Amino acid sequence: MCIRDRSKTAALRSTWMARVHSRNLLQSGVVLAHLFRPENFLNALRQEAARACNVSMDALALVTSTSPSSLDRYMCATLEGLLLQGGALLDGKLIDVQSHSALVTQIQAIGVAWVPEAEADSLLKSFGTVARIPMYTSPSREELVSEITLPCSGDPSVWAVAGVTIILANE
Length: 171
Description:
Helix content is about 30%, strand content about 25%.
């Protein structure tokens, strides 16, 4: 590990520790690529949501929104720095990429919240048609973090066939 990487790691650790100690971890955006195990962060969010809703963790569903404020009534985290591969977002909806488009594009911040399953379906329906998109740590797609939903038009299965994915870091 070079000196630059060590200083970047130390700065990130310092930032995260300050946010934890001030108890405002979810008050600003979270960059999952900065975490060694991003799936653990999502699971911790799930545990806290289960406590807040007084339900078991198995009774929660992960809901994502391109408008994080739509999830304000839940314990919501805003994810920043996510990269979309194989598609693009326009006005918060998935669209096809053009032949001259970049292979990977950074997308707007999205909100994620663990919501009781009974409420998740109606909440997702309020977003319109949504596609389930896998989220990986890198473009190699070796480590699946989670599956998120993004609004789309038309048939949602088209996005799975197209291989659209979210990646945390373009390494």
